[in-house]
Specification:
about 140 residues; alpha+beta; five-stranded mixed beta barrel; about 50% helix
Length: about 140
C-alpha cells in the first residue's frame, strides 16, 4: 500500500511540474506584440490570472495564447512557447521549484514509512524462529 501511494506521488511529481519543465526547455525569449482580454483570477474566482496575447520571437516567428500573468502590454519581454507565455524564465523556474517542493513534502512521509517497514522486516528476519517442535528454541525462550 505504501509503495502504491509513493508511486502515485512519484507520478504526480513527474506530471504536475513536468509540464512547466517542458515549457522551460522549449521556451525562448519573446516580445509581446498585442495583448487584451485580461482576467484577474484568484482563490475566490477559481481561475488563475491570465491575458490573451500575441508575441514575436527573435527569429521572426510568432506565437499567441494565454499568458501566465494578469497584465500584458505590447513591447513587454516574456518567456514563451508557441501557445503560452510566462512573465520570465526565472518566474517559471520558481514555479517549478514550488510545485516540486509541495510534491516532495507529500512523498517524504511515505518514504520514511517505507524505510521503517523495511527495517522492521529485516529485524524480524534476524530473530531466531522458535516453534513448538523445536526443543532447543523452547528451552532458550523459557530462560529469557
Amino acid at each position: 500500500m505504501v509503495l502504491a501511494l509513493a508511486a502515485l506521488f512519484g507520478t504526480f511529481l513527474w506530471v504536475w511540474p513536468g509540464a512547466d519543465v517542458r515549457k522551460l526547455i522549449e521556451g525562448e525569449p519573446a516580445v509581446v506584440t498585442s495583448a487584451g482580454g485580461c482576467v484577474e483570477g484568484g482563490i475566490n474566482t477559481g481561475t488563475a490570472s491570465y491575458c490573451s496575447a500575441d508575441w514575436r520571437f527573435a527569429d521572426g516567428s510568432t506565437g499567441s495564447g494565454r499568458t501566465g500573468f494578469s497584465s500584458a502590454h505590447a513591447g513587454e519581454s516574456v518567456y514563451a512557447g508557441e501557445d503560452w507565455a510566462a512573465g520570465s524564465k526565472g518566474g517559471l523556474i520558481a514555479h517549478i521549484t514550488l510545485k516540486s517542493l509541495i510534491v516532495l513534502a507529500g512523498v517524504i512521509p511515505f518514504a520514511i514509512e517505507w524505510m521503517g517497514n523495511i527495517r522492521s522486516r529485516r529485524r524480524e528476519r534476524g530473530k531466531p524462529q522458535s516453534g513448538p517442535d523445536d526443543e532447543k528454541s523452547s528451552h532458550w525462550a523459557s530462560l529469557r
